[in-house]
Specification:
With 226 residues, this protein is α/β, with parallel strands linked by helices. It folds into 2 domains: 39 residues; 185 residues, SGNH hydrolase (Rossmann fold), CATH 3.40.50. The protein has 7 helices and 5 strands, in the order αβαβαβααβαβα. The chain has a 5-stranded parallel beta sheet with strand order 2-1-3-4-5, sandwiched between helices. Strand 4, helix 6 and strand 5 form a beta-alpha-beta unit. Helix 2 packs across helix 7 and helix 5 packs parallel to helix 6. The N and C termini lie far apart (69 Å).
C-alpha cells in the first residue's frame, strides 16, 4: 500500500472517530439537559407564625410544620419549608419581619399564622386586620401566594369580641383574594374531648393534635402548590 493510500485511510479513521465522539458527546449533553429539566426546582414555603407553629412545648420535629415537610416528601413534591415562626409573635411583629424574609428566601407560598396573640393581649382588631391586609399584599407584590390560617378565641373573651376576631380572617381573605383555612384548630379546640388535645396551659395543642392541624392546612396548600 502506498503512502498516499495509508494517509487517506488514517484520515478517514480519524474523521470517523471524531464524528462518533461528536455524536456521543452531543447525546450525552442532551441527556444531561433532559435530566436537569426533569428535576423540578424546589419551591420555598415560608411559614410565618407564632407558638402554634413554633413547636412550643413539643418535642422537636413533631409540630405540624415538621409534619408538613414529611408530607411533601411523601407526595414527591419538590418544596423546602422555612419555619420563621416565633412564640409570642403578633401581626405587627410578623409585618415588620416579612419583607426581609421574602428577600432572603424568595418563597412561592407564604403561610401566615398570626393574630392569636393580638387577641390574647386585647389589641385593636382593626390594627390586626390592617397588618394582615398589608402582609398579604406584600406577599403578592413579591410574586408569591399567601395562605391565611384563621383562629378563634375561647368563650371567656366575650361573644362579640370573639365573633369579630374570627370574622376578620375571612374579610382579609376576600378583600385580597387570598387562600384561607377558616380555623387552624378545627377538630382540636371545637370537639367535646378538646381538653385532652391541649397542654396544661390550655392554649397550646399537644403532639396528638398536630396531624389534625396539618390536615386542616394541607388541602388549601396543595391547591397553591399545584
Amino acid at each position: 500500500m502506498d503512502k498516499c493510500s495509508t494517509e487517506m485511510i488514517e484520515s478517514g479513521m480519524k474523521l470517523s472517530l471524531d464524528r462518533r465522539h461528536f455524536i456521543s458527546t452531543g447525546l450525552l449533553c442532551a441527556a444531561t439537559g433532559l435530566s436537569r429539566a426533569a428535576t423540578p426546582t424546589p419551591r420555598v414555603i415560608l411559614v410565618l407564625g407564632d407558638s402554634l407553629s413554633a413547636e412550643y412545648g413539643l418535642k422537636r420535629g413533631t409540630g405540624w410544620v415538621a409534619l408538613l415537610e414529611q408530607r411533601l416528601r411523601a407526595e414527591n413534591m419538590a418544596a423546602t419549608v422555612i419555619n420563621a415562626s416565633i412564640s409570642g409573635e403578633t401581626t405587627a411583629g410578623g409585618r415588620s419581619r416579612l419583607k426581609s424574609l421574602l428577600s432572603q428566601y424568595r418563597p412561592k407560598v407564604v403561610i401566615i399564622e398570626l393574630g392569636a396573640n393580638d387577641a390574647l393581649r386585647g389589641l385593636s382588631l382593626q390594627a390586626t386586620q390592617a397588618n394582615l391586609d398589608e402582609m398579604t399584599q406584600t406577599v403578592r407584590q413579591a410574586g408569591a401566594r399567601s395562605l391565611l390560617l384563621g383562629m378563634r378565641l375561647p368563650p371567656n373573651y366575650g361573644q362579640d369580641y370573639g365573633a369579630r376576631f374570627a370574622a376578620l380572617f375571612g374579610q382579609v381573605a376576600r378583600s385580597n383574594k387570598t387562600a384561607l383555612v377558616p380555623f387552624l384548630l378545627e377538630g382540636v379546640a371545637d370537639v367535646p374531648e378538646s381538653g385532652s388535645m391541649f397542654q396544661s396551659d390550655r392554649i397550646h395543642p399537644r403532639e396528638a393534635a398536630q396531624p389534625i392541624m396539618l390536615a386542616n392546612v394541607w388541602p388549601e396548600l396543595r391547591k397553591l402548590l399545584k
